[in-house]
Amino acid sequence: MMLTALNDFARERGLTDDPLYEVKPVDFFIRISAAGKFVSLESTAGEDGRGKPLSIPRLPQRSVNIAAGFFADNPKYVLAYEKDAPKAKAGGVEKRVARLDAFLKPVREVSAETKDPEARAVESFLTSEAERRKVLAARDADEWTGSELLAFVVGDATAPVHQNPAIRACWERRSGEKRALGRTARCLVTGQEGVVALTHPKLKNVPEAQSSGASLVSFNAPAFSSHGLEQGDNAPISQEAALGYVLALNDMLRRTEQRRFRQGIQLGDGSVLVFWTRASPSEESLLLSWMDPTEEDLQRFTESPFHGLQPGALDDRAFYAVTLTGNAGRVAVRDWFESRVGEVKRNILRYFDDLRIGNAPTGPTPIYRLLKAVEAPSGRGLSPDVATRMVGAALRGLHFPRQLLTSALDRLRLPPADDRFEREQLRLRVALIKATLLRLPRSGTTPLEVTVSLDKNNASQPYVLGRLFAVLERLQGAALKDLNATIRDRYFGAASRNPVTVFPRLLQLSVHHASKAGENGRWLERTKGEVMALLPPERFPRVLGLEDQGLFAVGYYHQREAFFTKREAPAPGESDASSS
Alpha-carbon distance 333 to 5, whole Å? Predict the structure, then answer.
């Protein structure tokens, strides 16, 4: 089903309209004379420094194998260029010579078949080592990388040789003959008879995969084969369908100026979620801007927070999402699901409502910021599995993994890594805790109530203890001002897990802190009394479970944020100096 949906996407968006050609940025034209002599090396780079996008004969799939392009390729094939390993061997012949021979072979065949002057000029150029060296000398040696895409132009022509009608006709005929040699079978993707793809094109830009690309479907070892079948015959997929699903994923995975993935969300360092719809590109762009907003998106949302997520005419259209991760030369699917655009919109709204806490402005938070907030100080983030399940749950409207609650609480127990961003990081961690608590499955019928901001009527013991801890921290700060370590740095973890071992000592200290804090101390003492009045007779339990530790964190954050907001106008006789 997944490959079928991807192939349909490729056809609907016109990605497979011309399967024999692809658009690539050609970096340089090698201009040669009709006699095959080098004239000039012409850069096609625009203002952005990138080569000019041109339609070229589709490049072959390759990793360590030698497979040349048709009249256009990189310097390793066109010029026999080898930067780091000039003596590498391939079948007893230097690899750089083997690449050049592979590129030259179809040029010679086309030249002999068509007698075309441009094809003959390219053949003459390629057979002259002196002319090839002139091209390499046209740039500083350090500027060549070996990945530049090169094409030929002959004489005063403006169109490259590979766009010559006679040469195009040869390419199309040769490609058709090659396909006709393959075995035909019923395609598992389309359900139609077609030539089976023995190997599939590679996916590019998948995290943790090889930079040259990796396969989603492959049978490259005997253990993956059965009944004597080899490679793609084990699961017959037509060449057209194999190209279609790869073109679809590569289109969504490609980089843009603003995003690492055009239509994907990075989940930590090791995986990416890509999604598409049967609706329209504008609907996909809207959903992406909510789940993974750029700075420009965030600015727009401040003006119209919920623009576009209201019910629309395309809400009944299909929505698809797949999470991919790489492992060297292979790509694995971590998650896959189907839904409807309208259902996903509702789930996204609920997701951000669950995350909303305190007085933060309404609007989305990028996924990477949430994941970054709960990674360890060493930089080790959530496991790819937890990150995948969290985002999948957000889009499906399901509960978050309990490991997310554990990770957020573990990070809260550590001292702040950077005071400059501490308030924002604290908000994100507690927001994840709140959202996870709201979504945890429960055996009873009464859902857990966790409010957005301070709830003075909430008498839940863990919540009240969290509030009390925030008051005691505030008292310490008012009394001692600049501190190297606060009670949060020293005692937050113990107070949230084993309150009875910490709070009696902290309450004794608070008496001394209140005496040193002046007017603020008297106001905070009154607040402390109001909070403690909500506790049951047995104020401090021995142990708090995981969910109760989450409520403790929410209560702490609510009370702490309330101190940051302006208090109501002071009552008659109360000094303004106590305002915070």
Answer: 15
In tens, the pLDDT along 497-536 reads 999 999 999 999 998 888 888 888 888 999 999 999 999 9
**Helical ranges in 377-460 per DSSP H:** 384-396, 402-412, 422-439
| Residue 313, helix vs strand vs coil | coil
For residue 533, give the nearest of 448, 471, 451, 452 by alpha carbon: 471
Residue 65, token pair as written in the block: 């194998």
User: Is 355 inside a domain boundary?
Assistant: yes
Name the β-bridge partners of 25.
Answer: 53
Is there a single domain that holds both residue 567 and residue 488? yes
3-state secondary structure of 300: helix
Q: Provide the mean pLDDT of the chain.
A: 87
Name the residue type at position 498. N
Stated as kind and residue range, the H or E segment containing 387 is helix 384-396
A 10 A CB-CB count for 488 gives 22
* C-beta pairs of 63-69 under 8 Å, 24+ apart in sequence: 63/202, 63/210, 63/212, 63/213, 63/329, 66/90, 66/95, 66/98, 66/99, 66/102, 67/102, 68/99, 68/102, 68/103, 68/105, 68/106, 69/103
pLDDT of residue 79: 95
Is 13 among the domain residues? no
Which among 178, 195, 216 is the end of a domain? 178
- Is 340 in the same domain as 249? no
CA-nearest of 567, 393, 532, 545 to 459 is 532
**Comparing C-alpha atoms, which of 157, 146, 98 is closest to residue 122?**
157
What is the domain count for the chain? 4
Confidence class of residue 302 from pLDDT cuts 50, 70 and 90? Answer: low
One domain, residues 86 and 231: no
Is 551 in contact with 491 (CB distance < 8 Å)?
no
- Taking CA atoms, 146 is separated from 59, 82, 219, in Å, by 15, 7, 30
* 561 and 484 within one domain: yes
Residues comprising the chain, all counted = 580
Q: Domain range spanning residue 273?
A: 264-439
Residues 319 and 406 in one domain: yes
pLDDT band for position 566 (cuts 50, 70, 90)? low
